[in-house]
Design goal:
By secondary structure, this protein is of the alpha+beta class. About 35% of the residues lie in helices and about 25% in strands. Helix 4 packs across helix 5 and helix 7 packs across helix 8.
């Protein structure tokens, strides 16, 4: 964790901030290793504090070995303690995470500081730690590799269970069981299983629809391992596939293949997205590909960078992103194929190894 702290301290120095108070739970875990559900960090150039309550004192001392633990009993206690900490460490410019500090919390801080006569200046920060999280270190990539492998194995395990009369929610349950049995601590997100027309909705929820025969079934799922998320999508069809299915499926598959072949460090997300989007447009399905090509994955299931026609995020070695083109046709269904890949110094490494053969024999 020490190298993560040093990268953050450099970012604080560049912004001329004396300290940062970290309230985002994922950023707290990323910087400290602390997995408890409550607490904040105070990061300075030469000190790192973890403030949490009695429930986590022993846990924090084991998990957050680079941090000094300070006991607080509630958020209101933190507010009262803040002026004391600022005086103790001589903080003049304090950054805070604007996206996770409520108006009420911020107002409480300002009131407590004013009553204490503090002259500290408070500065909003956005995405400061999240930018660091974009580039995964070796330990993070290994956890993501494990999460992806569990998803691969689970998908292979359920193939023989699929039947036309099976309902979407039953498939979701079998996937969840298979992932937990193989070491997942939990789901990366609510599993999507969308049969037939339901597949035209990219984020459909698994319900009572039967899989049926001769129509696409979209399955989007992932395992979580030590906080890190897997994310994969495969589209299958039970029984015979018609010409429309093959045309759409092969268009999506080729769009993904082209995108993965073209991804490289230094590329921006807009250009990455365009590789797949241009292929799908040329095939006549541009209006049916409404979402972005992909997104970063790590401690959050959706994080930076984005592979999007609306963004120009830079892709750098160490970023782990999804590559998930799709085509969605109302009253018919959808096809999406998704891999997780690591941006390397020369191109990418594809983590997802699950089969892309769509036809399931019945």
């Amino acid at each position: 964790m020490q190298h993560r702290l040093e990268r953050l301290r450099q970012a604080l120095h560049e912004r001329q901030l004396d300290a940062l108070i970290v309230t985002n739970p994922l950023n707290r875990r990323y910087l400290s290793g602390f997995t408890g559900s409550a607490g904040v960090l105070l990061i300075l150039a030469d000190h790192a504090l973890l403030l949490s309550d009695f429930r986590y004192e022993s846990q924090a001392k084991v998990e957050a070995t680079n941090f000094e633990f300070r006991l607080i009993v509630s958020d209101s206690a933190l507010t009262k303690m803040l002026p004391e900490l600022i005086q103790e460490f001589g903080i003049q410019k304090l950054g805070f995470e604007a996206s996770t500090v409520s108006v009420a919390q911020f107002s409480g801080w300002r009131k407590a500081l004013a009553e204490a006569g503090s002259q500290v200046q408070l500065f909003e920060t956005e995405g400061l730690v999240e930018q660091l999280r974009q580039l995964k270190d070796a330990s993070e990539i290994e956890l993501l590799r494990r999460a992806v492998a569990i998803g691969d194995e689970a998908f292979a395990a359920i193939q023989s269970l699929l039947r036309p009369t099976m309902r979407e929610r039953e498939v979701a349950w079998e996937l969840e069981k298979a992932m937990r049995e193989r070491g997942a601590e939990g789901l990366a997100f609510e599993i999507i299983v969308a049969a037939g027309q339901n597949g035209a909705r990219p984020h459909a929820r698994a319900g009572d629809q039967e899989l049926g025969t001769g129509r696409p079934v979209v399955m989007d799922f992932g395992a979580r391992v030590e906080g890190y998320h897997g994310d994969m999508t495969r589209t299958v069809i039970l029984g015979e596939a018609d010409e429309q299915f093959w045309t759409i499926y092969n268009t999506v598959l080729e769009a993904q293949r082209l995108a993965e072949a073209g991804l490289r460090p230094g590329m921006n997300g807009f250009d990455a997205d365009a590789i797949a989007r241009d292929h799908i447009k040329a095939a006549g399905y541009g209006e049916q590909f409404g979402h972005s090509l992909g997104h970063g994955v790590g401690l959050a299931i959706h994080e930076e960078p984005r592979l999007s026609h609306l963004r120009q995020d830079l892709l750098s070695p160490g970023a782990v992103v999804s590559v998930e083109p799709g085509i969605y046709v109302p009253d018919w269904g959808g096809v999406r194929i998704e891999d997780l890949v690591v941006i390397t110094d020369t191109g990418i490494e594809v983590l997802t190894q699950a089969s892309k053969e769509p036809v399931v024999a019945i």
